[in-house]
Amino acid sequence: MSGIPTLRSTPTEAAPTNPFLRWFMPEVPLARVAVFRVFIYLFIIIDVLTISGDVIAHGWTPEFYQPLWLARFLHIPAVSVLGAQILLTFIIVFSLLAAAGILQRLSGWAVALSFGAWMFYTQGYGYVAHDHMALVIAAFVLPTVGTARFRDVGTASARAGWALRVVQIAVVLTYFYSVVMKWIASGNITHWANGAVIIWALMRRGAEWSKPFLEMPGLLIAAQWATLVFEFLSPVALFLKGKWLYGAVAFFFVFHLMTYLALGIHFLPTVICWAAFLPLEKLVPKRFTSMGTA
Amino acid sequence: MEEKKRRLLTSQDPAAQGPDPAPSSASRTGEPGSDKSGSDRPGTGPSARSKLSTPVKPLSKVSIGWRIVVPAVAFVILTCGQFLNTNDFFPLGSLTQYATAKDLNGTVNSTCIEAQFPGEDEPRRLGFNAATVGIERGDVESQLDRVIAHPELLQSMADSYIRLHPDEPKPETMVLCRTTTQLKNGLAVGEPEQTTLAKWEVR
Asked: What ranges does the record list as Low complexity composition bias (chain B) (predicted)?
């Protein structure tokens, strides 16, 4: 008996025979990945131009470079302004190609590697933000799917299902492990929940309209407890279906909208990856699909 | 064999075959969008397989194997990153943002950067961000001890400011400062106090 369960080989698709594999590598329409890919690659362009756009400025401050482990292992030096501009151009060009579905595997890997390098240069100067975890993972798993087109609404793929599932897991772990970290860093999770973290954040970077909440510490403590609860429960999203799943995704969207309006913390790189939970192939107009053209 | 012969004779793409006798796993696993009618599901209706569809090869044992092993290793690294409390394994480091508990009767510190310009009486507060001084506040706060021990690092911020603001006067002194607000039961008490952490005469 083979240690690794195999996929049943049929002329049309491979169906996992093991319940875990059926969950971990579900067959989903390739078109879902084609649409998700557009979301991710276009967002990467926005990201490198805005959210992680500090890399070019980091070219002026090489003394602050604190390379992360992989950057040290690969001997990646501090970025120069010219180097950052070349890298930026590279990312934008290949992201556009990948989003357009041109040379999909090649352009996808080119984005993954160049965006990975860009991440070393935005996160390697002291502060490491954890909102990019799922996005970086998405950039690396998408090229493994291979060719996926909008017309592939009727073509199921376990490769596509695996890539999306990995992104989904990365998304929920971003929340779940942040609870674990709060527990570890605080010693006692109630210290965090009953403490002044939101007060601290509002004082440091809160919007003017949110300043009155500083007069209501009880409300902010309640918000901390609520945050803990839904971050802890976030893995449940992996098993939700239909309206419950849509509701969960909408809930996290609203949560991040609120933190953005109040604190300027948008978490958009993670927010965009919530799209991996959705049946994105439904966005493809019928006339572009296999079924529409058959 | 018979199936292969038939495909060769009809020149049919493997992805353009007839209906799969087994139900799609998308419907079995309750994937979003799997609540469609049978003919609308992948591989369940004759019309669902046009020649325009991308052919899908079954996953080999090797393909399945690395798709299990690589995420498992990543999961272990991510988990270790939490318990070792290190960001060094980015993107699989610890998720430390806002993870530290804050005392309702403690203080709220915020690091600031100021510059003394020629002809001005007081140092002026600058935006502590990459667009102004080439680096974000969070980056400097993450290596604050190092910056205080080596105030010459402020020269780099002054140089960035000059390059990023070529039409502005050149700063004479850079001041790394901190504002501290005292809390009592979660409410701010009094005005924030400012202290100087490091000073550097710009060369």
From this structure: 11-27
